[in-house]
């Protein structure tokens, strides 16, 4: 079954919701790419589901660029990045009519390239990204093609050995879309899929998503399976599910962290009373 998040992914930058200034800055970067004053890469930073990947793909469509994509994978290493992204970036490409064209090198969810948290029996250990950050920096230095990097956590990408990445690439920050904007997209999907749903239920789904548009569309698809009508009670189950996930993640940090600050921060950010955690 086709993912609705992919089926309804915006095809052009003009189809994206919100972040108008950031999108305009991205257009300007693309239009001036190749000039001496323009950086070869751009980092799109922001929370999940806010449109970073869609912006990169929409930009490529608008510019007539082919996309060479590396997305999240537990098996990626610096060697893999160099073997694909750097190689694609070093060579000029030609379109079907033999006219020189560009590739857009997309390193999607680059957060997953480095310092993965892995659990041991009694603490959390950080492991290196096996050269991932160095390979990204090398790609930015040597590429002859535009590079777009998407991340949820800019700090983790650019700290330590990643500081060079920040110097070599422009950074653009994406914000979460409003609940009103999310509801508007959900209404369009419901109309296309001929779903029966009240505006009250659509608004409730948009609120539950907390600005993660991709998650909202995935939830809509999940709730629609087997029926053509979605009611508010269905959405309330999603809210309960999210609270369970948040609680599980918090307990995971508490029991596996080897310092005091991480559990304290996790409990502070959890939308529950301390007695509920205890």
From TrEMBL:
Show the PANTHER family listed in the entry.
Answer: CHROMOSOME TRANSMISSION FIDELITY FACTOR 18, REPLICATION FACTOR C SUBUNIT 1
The GO terms this record gives for MF are: ATP binding; ATP hydrolysis activity
Q: Which UniProt keywords apply?
A: ATP-binding, DNA replication, Nucleotide-binding
Gene3D superfamilies with a match to the protein in the record: 1.10.8.60, P-loop containing nucleotide triphosphate hydrolases (3.40.50.300)
CDD domains membership: AAA (cd00009), HLD_clamp_RFC (cd18140)
- Protein name, per record: AAA+ ATPase domain-containing protein
**SUPFAM superfamilies found in the cross-reference section:** P-loop containing nucleoside triphosphate hydrolases
Task: State the Gene Ontology BP annotations.
Answer: DNA replication
Q: What's a Pfam family in this record?
A: RCF1-5-like_lid
Q: Which residues form the AAA+ ATPase domain?
A: 38-178
């Amino acid at each position: 079954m086709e993912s609705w998040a992919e089926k309804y992914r915006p095809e052009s930058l003009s189809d994206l919701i919100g972040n108008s200034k950031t999108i305009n800055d991205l257009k300007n970067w693309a239009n001036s790419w190749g000039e001496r004053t323009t950086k070869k890469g751009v980092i799109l930073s922001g929370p999940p589901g806010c449109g970073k990947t869609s912006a990169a793909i929409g930009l490529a469509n608008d510019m007539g660029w082919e996309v060479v994509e590396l997305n999240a994978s537990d098996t990626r290493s610096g060697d893999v990045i160099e073997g694909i992204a750097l190689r694609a970036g070093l060579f000029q490409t030609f379109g079907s009519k033999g006219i020189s064209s560009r590739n857009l090198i997309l390193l999607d969810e680059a957060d997953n390239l480095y310092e993965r948290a892995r659990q041991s029996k009694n603490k959390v250990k950080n492991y290196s990204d096996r050269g991932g950050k160095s390979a990204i920096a090398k790609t930015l230095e040597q590429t002859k093609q535009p590079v777009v990097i998407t991340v949820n956590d800019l700090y983790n990408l650019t700290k330590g050995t990643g500081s060079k990445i920040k110097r070599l690439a422009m950074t653009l920050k994406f914000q979460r879309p409003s609940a009103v904007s999310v509801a508007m997209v959900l209404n369009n999907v419901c109309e296309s899929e001929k779903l029966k749903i009240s505006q009250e239920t659509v608004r409730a789904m948009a609120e539950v998503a907390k600005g993660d548009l991709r998650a909202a569309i995935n939830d809509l698809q999940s709730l629609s399976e087997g029926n053509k009508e979605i009611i508010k009670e269905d959405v309330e189950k999603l809210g309960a599910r999210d609270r369970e996930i948040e609680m599980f993640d918090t307990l995971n940090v508490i029991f596996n962290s080897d310092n005091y600050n991480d559990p304290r921060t996790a409990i502070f950010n959890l939308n529950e009373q301390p007695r509920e955690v205890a």
